[in-house]
Design goal:
4-stranded antiparallel β-sheet; mainly beta; about 260 residues; 15 strands; 2 helices; about 50% strand
Length: about 260
């Protein structure tokens, strides 16, 4: 006998469109192709009794990618800085952040839309094509920037060092359970080093400060080719023969995250 198991339900809505245009046609031909896709989704249900399902975690082990009922799939969850009942950020006595014990949604990895734009120009038997692909929206967690900050290699970790601009913190210190006192001061260089190191810790980290807009545009491929005329290959076993030079992943045209 077999038992059916309900693994959940995912609701998907979206579209995909392909647009082809030829602005110039003749001795010189110019073709443009634009491909767009968008996906809207929501986790309606998971296996019985579950409201969330952990899918993956980065090497930093302080962030989890989860399916959460009522949200799009693949939500980014992680530690954020704790707040007191009045909404003030909570620090320890050295000015380092204290993390909220509960993981919270800090980002959505699903893009608003994705696409690709291909331009092809042909003259006689020569042709040149350029493919740009892009993504708009969605979030990404950078474990690289988190580790670089912890180790003092990221530019932002200069803040608070001796001879650099001060690192100022403002909020409250939790002296005991439910007892807070204000903190509003510049950190010493030693305290600043501890602050930046703490932002990436598993217990007291601020994973949300390492979430970035994942939008990008890249020159994905550039191709230059030559199609041999039929008369040159008439006595060969080939019906067509093309020589192409192809370059891939040539340039990042725009992005919103450094060091990635």
């Amino acid at each position: 006998s077999a038992t059916a198991v309900n693994l959940g339900k995912l609701e998907n809505k979206g579209f995909e469109a392909l647009i082809n245009v030829t602005p110039i046609q003749g001795k010189v031909t110019w073709d443009i192709s634009l491909n767009l896709a968008k996906n809207n989704n929501k986790v309606v249900s998971l296996i019985e009794g579950s409201k969330e399902l952990t899918l993956e975690e980065p090497r930093t082990r302080n962030v989890f990618i989860k399916h959460i009922v009522g949200n799009p799939y693949g939500m980014i969850t992680g530690r954020v800085q704790k707040k007191d009942p009045s909404g003030n950020l909570v620090f320890d006595q050295w000015g380092s952040p204290i993390g909220d014990p509960n993981y919270q949604i800090i980002g959505n990895g699903v893009a608003n839309f994705t696409g690709g734009l291909n331009n092809l120009v042909a003259l006689d038997n020569f042709y040149l094509s350029a493919l740009i692909d892009f993504k708009s929206g969605g979030d990404i967690f950078s474990g690289t920037n988190m580790r670089l900050t912890q180790w003092g290699f990221h530019q932002q970790s200069l803040l608070g060092r001796e001879g650099e601009a001060p690192l100022h913190v403002k909020g409250v210190i939790e002296r005991s359970a439910g007892v807070f006192e204000p903190i509003d001061r510049d950190l010493t260089p030693q305290e600043a080093q501890r602050y930046w190191s703490t932002t990436g810790s598993e217990q007291n980290g601020k994973a949300d400060m390492y979430v970035y807009d994942a939008s990008f545009a890249k020159l994905r491929q550039l191709t230059f080719g030559y199609s041999f005329p039929r008369k040159l290959i008439a006595k060969t076993p080939f019906q067509t023969l093309t020589l192409s030079f192809v370059g891939r992943n040539l340039a990042i045209l725009s992005k919103n995250i450094d060091n990635e």
